[in-house]
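Hi everyone, sorry if this is the wrong subforum. Our group has a chain we'd like a structural model of before ordering constructs, and none of us has done structure prediction before. Sequence below.
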Amino acid sequence: MVNFQNEKQIILSYYDALASANVCEIPEVCAHYASDDCLWQSYYPFKDQIGGERLARQFWVPFKNSFKRLQRRQDVFFAGKNELGKEESIWVVSMGNLVGLFDNDWLSIRANKKMTFLRYAEFNEIKNEKIVQTAFYFDIPHLMYQVGIDPFPNALGANILQCGPATHDGLYYKDQNLNSGQKTSKAIDHMIDTLGNWDNLLSLEEELALSWHDDMIWWGPTGIGSTYTIERYAKQHAGPFRSAFTNRKFNGHICRVSEGYFGGFFGRPNLTLTLSNSFMGYPPTNLTADMNVIDLYRRDGKKLAENWVFIDLLGFWMQNGIDVLANTTKHIP
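Answer:
Right subforum, don't worry. Here is the predicted structure as tokens:
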């Protein structure tokens, strides 16, 4: 048994402090928990920030001004040592929804005065009792969809409020058996190695079956949508994705970590690719763009059963000359 209790408690205390703080107190909270040189990385339209006070004023102050009575509803929480890089580092991972009353406009999105969800995933690196690096990725298109704006009307999968693990056991407040986490890492590594060869002799479904259970669920970002079973995942995302892009380059990950039956990674960017055919209802641009992605997984036995995926689609399409966030007037019938 490995011990990540100290790092987990730092993040849980940070979340409690954010929840209880008044808006004017948030910069002080973030400065207390984050180092002066903490790197905070997020999705478009947010820029990277250095230091707790700057990230507070960039994100948390305007967000809590817009979303009242905010709750953090976690579905997955775990920690572990980064499997990548030369220096040993410990990361704490959280995934779920930030839920509040959307009472004041946020970004260019008009408030609906109703209960509204922001789906998120967050990786925090802890060193010397402080947060020194954060990847905080969230599904803004899903929030847009909830207030009546349909930014991506041609999703092949289902644009739905996503569920947590089917096993309802994703909150690892207590540390887990080291061997279980190693098995999860091995399953994720196997999947990455298998998907690294997109030109093998197997069919797409046969290739996926090497790493995934047949009744897998791929919880994809709004605009691509979620899919159920290998067959539908191949038809509703993996196949169209592969046919849309050429000059695909995998840039690697910044962090890859597992504990118990859960694991995941993030990159910045994960992929660089050229849109050579239509994707998500948009025609080819023949432009090369980056994708920033977080993937979280649940292992069942030797294979993967669920995958929660966060992609900076707003940033990706902006690189392709399409400002999705600016189009906030197209409402769902």
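For your construct planning: The longest strand covers residues 67-81. Helices lie at 5-20, 26-33, 52-66, 140-146, 178-195, 204-209, 230-244, 313-319.
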